[in-house]
Give the backbone structure.
Amino acid sequence: MAKSPRSKPLLAEDKPLRSRARKPRDPAQPNLPFDPMPARVEPCLALLKPRPPVGPDWLYEIKWDGYRIAVHLNNGNVRILTRGGHDWTQRFPGIEDAAKRLGVGSAILDGEAVVLDEEGRPDFGRLQNSLGGRGGKLTAGNAIMYAFDLLYFDGYDIRGMELTSRRYFLQSLLKGFEGEIRLSEALDGDGREIFTAACDHGLEGIIAKYKDAPYRSGRFGEWIKVKCIQSDSFIVVGYEHSMVARGGIGSLLLAARKGGDWVYVGSVGTGFSEKTAEQLRKMLDTIKSKKPPVVYSGRRKNLVWVQPTLIAEIEYRAWTHDGKLRHASYKGLREVQDNAAVYELDGPASNGSLA
């Protein structure tokens, strides 16, 4: 696989910035010019768009297919939090160890935990397997973190700085560092060409970020995501029982959210191995429901309805005219702790957006 184009280093000749761990602050000196370290920061989220913005005000990054995490480092103590705020430090021992070796007293790094395939591409299924699947308690020892933002650095909250300044400090922190925390490279150039290259390399897509924007929690359009292949989260509402299919599952029945209701959006019958299908069947049979959680007018037989509690990550090509997923493929179950957002319909299915 050809390497992604690299931007010109921000610190071409400078040495990496380093600091020594600071001692706990003296409460008798409340006016020390340091910012209190936040216990948690709600992440900045990217807005889904059909095409990337272009122009000199934007920089671009690879869209990593994994789990969004924040690494909190404070005087040698490390916490790794999921997007939903759950502590998964013990599940990423390699990333935890790397954070302790960064050589800075305090920092909060924003990024994505991924597992790479043989060609260096992130593989969500491998990450899930390394963690033991949904609800698993295994550690992902082979996971790495691609860091793309720095929110707190050496005693100072830098979220109010523009993105280019935050990346300056992030790059200086990771320059020459070897370990399970790596820099998510910023790519300069035409966003359309970068997006095409990402798709040609089999990647999920790109993220465009407004260079002068501060870090704001939530989804405000200062970060834009553009996907090569659609991949979103849907709720599992049942399965089609089969005597010949793997695990007895002919296909999973899926739904999206619309207001306070679930809307049936089709099924997926590919993407799971025999082992995965057997694990799914065991989970599904513990949450069977006598009544369907969605309005269903199809002609499928041997349907088994379940309570809408499992969230599946589904890759698909497009929507049909009647609001169903086209060419869907199962990628894995999302963790509740990952705060996975179920696809939300704000009108016709083809105009849906992530919650």
